[in-house]
């Protein structure tokens, strides 16, 4: 049995692991690289395998950095099965079509520039048609039920507590008389947060692949995040500005709405509208309502009630989004993308970064090289949309809204194994974060390795 790290090694994004076992070649995830230009160029590099040779993709969840290259895989003649939990299958339906539309729009804009410069046009990474063909290959399974991938290979998805439908993958490989159990953590969520259940503790494995996005730091207490959110809203209201929140459409947006609803019910929120300016997030809300199996009824009913609060306004049409730039009164605008690499938030930043009355509040991970990371690290000026924009708005961050487990929670999950795994591979993290988690796990007596992209290991 061999595993090749095709992405998410010493980098957070681009999740893709090639597993060769029992005469089959399968992928765990096929995600997009996100961040700066050097990172996103990796999306156009040849795959490290022949797409035709892959029989299955086992998808841990619907975030783009885990699923976003599936349409390209299909475009290059993959015709196997894509297996995911039921909620992930539904979310992938809206997210991959949205990603394809972005590829087409961005390529058309780039080609306008190239035509002016006399350069040949480019083709999009993939199209809406590629995304539609991808969704035809998706098969959904329930949590906690073993399923046959191929002769000699079985899988089981356990709740990862990261986003709706997110999964830890248990992979059982039988070769000869020996069965090996390999566990891929996917992205693990935090404990004791609203809406989504806690990550599942896995008790046995021969080998573990664990994420390390926040392997070098701890989040603030979840109990403090609503008070911090209220503080930023009140301070921005006092200045007469806009609170701009770059937000991932799935999970983060729903948690932010949930938190704002709690603040409103406690009468701790100023008299200002909350605009959800994300068609994708609005569609995701409907998927949340459908999948009761992912959270308890109390959380579902509370979420329904709070997202329908009178102060929350949904902006689906582009013209509604553009009108927000003309509002000259305090308000909250929640828009994607979460790392400011695309989407409507970029237009709001264009109109709002230079205004000292405003606040840019980050509530999720900002990949190295992304516009969000550049702003968060204190840039006085940024280049975006063909112009230089001065940064005068206030900049804040609430780390406890992250859908990722922090270093302490990653350690807690690893301590759940009753028998120590023989090997632990640390992935999905910048090099410093992976190294920090490696040090913590080695103190617990675990044999750990931080792989490079392209590295192959024998299990």
Determine the fraction of residues in helical runs and give it as a percent range: 25-40%
Q: What does the overall shape look like?
A: globular
CATH class of the largest domain: Alpha Beta
Average residue-wise pLDDT: 91
CATH superfamily of the largest domain, called what? Ribonuclease Z/Hydroxyacylglutathione hydrolase-like
The oligomeric status of these chains comes to single chain
The CATH architecture of the largest domain is 4-Layer Sandwich
Total tally of structural domains: 2
Mind telling me the C-alpha Rg? Answer: 22 Å
Kindly report the CATH topology of the largest domain. Metallo-beta-lactamase, Chain A
Provide the low-confidence segments as ranges: none
Largest sheet: 7 strands, mixed
How many DSSP E strands?
Answer: 22
- Decide which structural class fits the backbone: alpha/beta
Please list the strands of the largest sheet in the order they lie side by side: 6-5-4-3-2-1-22
Distance between the termini: 5 Å
Strand content: 15-25%
């Amino acid at each position: 049995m061999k595993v090749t790290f095709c992405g998410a090694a010493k980098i957070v994004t681009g999740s893709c692991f090639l597993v060769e076992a029992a005469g089959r070649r399968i992928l765990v995830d096929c995600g997009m690289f996100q961040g700066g230009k050097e990172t996103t160029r990796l999306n156009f590099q040849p795959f490290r395998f022949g797409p035709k040779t892959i029989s299955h993709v086992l998808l841990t969840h619907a975030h783009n950095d885990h699923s976003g290259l599936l349409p390209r895989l299909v475009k290059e003649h993959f015709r196997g099965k894509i297996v995911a939990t039921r909620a992930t299958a539904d979310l992938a339906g809206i997210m991959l079509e949205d990603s394809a539309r972005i590829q087409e729009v961005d390529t058309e804009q780039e080609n306008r520039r190239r035509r002016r410069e006399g350069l040949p046009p480019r083709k999009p990474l993939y199209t809406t048609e590629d995304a539609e063909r991808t969704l035809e290959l998706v098969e959904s399974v329930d949590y906690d039920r073993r399923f046959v991938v191929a002769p000699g290979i079985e899988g089981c998805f356990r709740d990862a507590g990261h986003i709706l439908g997110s999964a830890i993958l248990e992979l059982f490989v039988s070769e000869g008389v020996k069965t090996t159990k390999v566990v891929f953590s996917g992205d693990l969520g935090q404990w004791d947060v609203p809406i989504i259940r806690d990550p599942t503790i896995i008790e046995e494995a021969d080998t573990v692949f664990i994420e390390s996005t926040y392997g070098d730091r701890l989040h603030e207490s979840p109990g403090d995040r609503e008070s911090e959110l209220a503080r930023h809203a009140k301070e921005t209201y006092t200045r007469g500005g806009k609170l701009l929140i770059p937000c991932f459409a799935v999970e983060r947006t729903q948690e932010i709405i949930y938190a704002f609803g709690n603040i409103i019910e406690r009468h701790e929120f100023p008299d200002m509208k909350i605009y959800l300016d994300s068609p994708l997030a609005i569609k995701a809300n409907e998927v949340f309502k459908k999948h009761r199996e992912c959270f308890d009824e109390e959380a579902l009913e509370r979420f329904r009630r709070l997202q329908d609060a009178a102060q929350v306004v949904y902006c689906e049409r582009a013209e509604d989004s553009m009108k927000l730039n003309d509002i000259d009164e305090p308000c909250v605008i929640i828009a994607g993308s979460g790392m400011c690499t695309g989407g409507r938030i970029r237009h709001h930043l264009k109109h709002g970064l230079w205004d000292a009355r405003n606040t840019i509040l980050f509530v999720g991970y900002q990949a190295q090289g992304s516009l969000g990371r550049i702003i968060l690290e204190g840039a006085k000026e940024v280049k975006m949309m063909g112009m230089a924009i001065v940064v005068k708005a206030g900049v804040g961050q609430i780390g406890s809204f992250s859908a990722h487990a922090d270093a302490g929670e990653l350690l807690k999950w690893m301590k759940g194994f009753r028998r120590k795994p023989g090997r632990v591979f640390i992935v999905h993290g910048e090099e410093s974060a992976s190294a920090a988690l490696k040090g913590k796990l080695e103190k617990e007596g675990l044999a750990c390795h931080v792989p490079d992209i392209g590295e192959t290991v024998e299990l």
